[in-house]
Write a structure and sequence with these properties.
Structural class: alpha+beta
Strand content: 5-15%
Strand order of the largest sheet: 2-4-5-7-6
Largest sheet: 5 strands, mixed
CATH superfamily of the largest domain: Histidine kinase-like ATPase, C-terminal domain
Number of domains: 3
CATH class of the largest domain: Alpha Beta
Helix content: 55-70%
Radius of gyration: 44 Å
Distance between the termini: 49 Å
């Protein structure tokens, strides 16, 4: 969008040029009329056309020039009469014509002055109306933007409710079935060996339901702008080890290897430990959920520039290239789901990116179909205390 001041510059310059041209034409025409009137040797009433230069002066909005020319022309009207006549006399028809011509010049100057003022007032009013219209247009745009934001917020809430209501059924149904099975098994001593596996499945579903609730709460906090960093100093290796220990039963239940590749110097960070643990848990949980065989590897490193990297790699099915661009969007899971098969990532990755950016970093993905995926969390060098 161009600057209004720059855009209006040429128009203003053209107007000034037009006014100057009209003023010059008015002076030239008045000079020509005066020259003709003073040089003629017969009683020719040239003063009857003295109002023409005044019209040009008024068109150029030069009111001072308008009255200046009027005064000069009135004086010249009687000077020319004295040169051509024998002196003023009320009975002289030529004198009466000159006097009427002078009155005509003054009346014309007064009317043109009033017309010029009226034109300026009308122009100023039109300018105010134009500015008022622009203001109304701007307000309408703001209202449209606010309405679009409100509609988007309503749509996001609807999609959130759809996603939650769709995904919450599975863990609730599974928990109910597990509870029934545990009750039946507890009353049957011969089936007591199944209790640990049932309890493990029940715990897995409860954790899945808890993660879903945490996702909803995180999104709500982000939308309300109430997310704050609570920084502390901690060991990166210890954080990764603790989170992997929590998720080890899930890996064992799927016969997946959960490998750690931690730096030997055990870097210490100053960041929000809880939020970073949430990011790591989401990424590892996703990797375990979508990997059917093979392993999930969590690696950490510090670059020579001091940037901290955390990489979560899996041997899962990978992500199609057309889905990589929107993989961190909210509700992607709902959009990518087909034939009842879970292929999306839901709210987890959107939350991971928001939390990481809140700490000054970012998260990216590298994936190849059939070869697995790698999610890389990058934290700035300002978060590193020691290595």
């Amino acid at each position: 969008m161009s600057d209004p001041a720059v855009a209006s510059g040429p128009t203003l310059l053209e107007r000034l040029r037009q006014r100057n041209v009209l003023a010059a034409l008015a002076i030239a025409l008045a000079a020509a009329e005066i020259a003709v009137d003073l040089s003629t040797w017969i009683q020719l009433n040239v003063a009857i056309v003295y109002s023409l230069p005044l019209v040009l002066a008024a068109a150029g909005r030069h009111r001072r020039l308008l009255w200046g020319l009027a005064f000069v022309l009135v004086c010249v009207t009687f000077i020319a009469y004295w040169q051509q006549g024998e002196g003023p006399a009320l009975q002289d028809e030529y004198f009466v014509n000159r006097a009427l011509a002078a009155v005509n010049v003054l009346l014309a100057a007064a009317l043109l002055h009033a017309l010029s003022v009226a034109v300026e007032l009308l122009t100023a009013r039109n300018r105010q109306l134009s500015l008022f219209q622009q203001e109304i247009t701007q307000r309408n745009r703001e209202l449209d933007l606010q309405r679009a934001q409100a509609e988007e917020a309503s749509d996001r809430k609807t999609r959130l409710l759809m996603s939650v209501s769709h995904d919450i059924r599975s863990p609730l149904t599974s928990i109910s079935l597990m509870a029934d099975l545990i009750g039946d098994t507890a009353s049957d001593p011969a089936s007591s060996a199944r209790l640990p596996a049932l309890a493990q499945g029940l715990q897995r579903d409860v954790l899945s339901l808890a993660d879903m609730v945490n996702d909803v709460l995180d999104i709500a906090y982000f939308d309300s702008g109430r997310v704050e960093l609570r920084e502390s100093e901690f060991s990166l290796n210890q954080l990764i080890a603790e989170e992997c220990q929590t998720l080890e039963p899930l890996a064992a239940a799927k016969n997946l290897a959960l490998a750690l590749e931690l730096p030997p110097d055990a870097p210490r960070l100053r960041a929000d430990r809880i939020k970073l643990a949430r990011v790591l848990r989401n990424l590892v949980n996703n990797a375990l959920q979508f990997t059917q065989r093979g392993s999930v590897t969590i690696a950490a490193a510090v670059t020579p520039e001091g940037e901290v990297w955390i990489r979560v790699s899996d041997t899962g099915p990978g992500i199609a290239p057309e889905h990589l661009a929107g993989i961190f969007g909210e509700f992607t899971q709902l959009e990518l789901r087909s034939s009842g098969e879970r292929r999306g990532w839901g709210l987890g990755l959107a939350i991971c990116r928001r939390l990481t950016r809140l700490m000054g970093g970012d998260v990216s993905v590298q994936s190849e179909l059939g070869r697995g995926s790698s999610f890389i969390v990058r934290l700035p060098a300002s978060r590193l205390i020691s290595a």
